[in-house]
């Protein structure tokens, strides 16, 4: 069964705000299609999420073949990405938009996934589930929740598309419950299988962090309590929550890595390591998986254990970002043992899930 990929870094969630990731040059970005593109959402609309949302929705729906519409939307997004700090900061939510629009044309999640693109942390696949969850509706959800992703696991091998479906379901639950986090977790708990429940909860918590910075507001984040809602979550989901929470901590700490390390140390003995792995994910995300810059952040850890956990989170994000282990191994080789060995073994096991 694949381990759960980490959520996007905090820079993904800053509406209209450049992050360190946004300022990097495109040579570390994913390989993307380039060429002449006639852009809309320019000038005063260059940092207007609603403009991009309307544009990509219409672009997906405008082509005679839905596959061509999806491809056109991704081509446009990827062409903007290297030169637009705003598109970089909102890339994951924008891929949600493409997925939501695309899903309207399909009757099964698996059909929509055929035309997917993993660009910007697989947001397309999450957006697809938002549409499918809305289609099922709250009134029918309990009776049908275990059927939504079932055709993606017909062989019982827990492939990555199945993960993206169950994880994406968590996003969808937040959408149809109006971002009611604990209610959404209750629905996740009705799924058959602990792995499914945890994967779904990961989507819920990820959407909660996104909701704080993108056109809608969550009631389940508190700047005076940086560890909330993890601190108040059911024990079975606390670990999953802490895998996401540093993205919010960094937002309220204005990118102060030392302060975020300090907050993680207060998470409780059972969750400190998880929180530090979340921090490592963010270190990779905010540097667009730049090895030396990510290492400089992880090296702020107080000891080898803290550094190692940061590196575990970072190297997983390298693999999630590039869908390759090449850059991850290069990152690991910046370290000496024992951190290097931990990093390489994590990279090897995690890459097998792709």
Helix content: 55-70%
Strand tally is 0
Largest sheet: none
> Which structural class should the secondary elements be placed in?
mainly alpha
Which regions are unreliable across 5 or more consecutive residues at pLDDT < 50? 5-37
Mean of pLDDT: 87
Topology order in helix (H) and strand (E) letters: HHHHHHHHHHHHHHHHHH
Strand content: under 5%
Distance, first to last CA: 10 Å
The tally of structural domains comes to 2
Shape from CA axes? Answer: globular
Q: List the total number of helices.
A: 18
Radius of gyration equals: 19 Å
Question: What topology emerges from the helices and strands here?
Answer:
Layout: H1 49-62, H2 66-80, H3 85-89, H4 91-103, H5 109-113, H6 119-136, H7 138-144, H8 160-176, H9 181-189, H10 194-211, H11 235-242, H12 246-252, H13 257-265, H14 272-286, H15 291-298, H16 304-322, H17 326-332, H18 339-351
Helix pairs in contact: 1-2, 1-4, 2-4, 4-6, 6-8, 8-9, 8-10, 9-10, 10-11, 13-14, 14-15, 14-16, 15-17, 16-17, 16-18, 17-18
């Amino acid at each position: 069964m694949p381990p759960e990929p980490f959520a996007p870094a905090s820079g993904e969630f800053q509406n209209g705000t450049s992050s360190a990731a946004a300022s990097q040059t495109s040579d570390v970005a994913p390989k993307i299609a380039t060429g002449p593109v006639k852009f809309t959402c320019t000038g005063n609309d260059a940092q207007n999420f609603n403009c991009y949302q309307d544009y990509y929705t219409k672009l997906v729906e405008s082509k005679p073949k839905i596959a061509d519409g999806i491809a056109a939307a991704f081509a446009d997004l990827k062409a903007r990405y290297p030169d637009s700090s705003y598109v970089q900061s909102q890339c994951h939510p924008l891929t949600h938009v493409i997925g939501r629009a695309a899903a309207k044309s399909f009757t099964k999640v698996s059909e929509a996934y055929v035309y997917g693109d993993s660009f910007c942390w697989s947001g397309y696949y999450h957006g697809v589930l938002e549409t499918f969850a809305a289609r099922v509706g709250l009134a029918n959800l309990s009776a049908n929740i275990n059927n939504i992703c079932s055709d993606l696991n017909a062989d019982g091998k827990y492939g990555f598309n199945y993960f993206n479906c169950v994880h994406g379901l968590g996003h969808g639950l937040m959408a149809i419950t109006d971002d009611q986090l604990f209610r959404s977790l209750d629905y996740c708990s009705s799924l058959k299988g602990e792995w499914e429940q945890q994967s779904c909860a990961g989507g819920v918590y990820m959407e909660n962090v996104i909701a704080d910075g993108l056109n809608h507001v969550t009631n389940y984040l508190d700047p005076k309590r940086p560890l909330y809602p993890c601190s108040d979550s059911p024990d079975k989901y606390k670990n999953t929550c802490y895998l996401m929470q540093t993205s919010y901590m960094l937002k309220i700490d204005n990118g102060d890595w030392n302060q975020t390390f300090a907050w993680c140390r207060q998470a409780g003995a059972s969750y400190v390591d998880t929180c530090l792995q979340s921090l490592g994910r963010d270190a990779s995300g905010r540097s667009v998986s730049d090895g030396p810059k990510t290492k400089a952040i992880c090296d702020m850890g107080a000891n080898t254990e803290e550094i190692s956990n940061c590196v575990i989170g970072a190297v997983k994000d390298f693999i999630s970002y590039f869908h390759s282990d090449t850059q991850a191994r290069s990152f690991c080789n910046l370290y000496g043992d024992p951190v290097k060995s931990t990093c390489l073994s994590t990279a090897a096991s995690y890459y097998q899930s792709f």
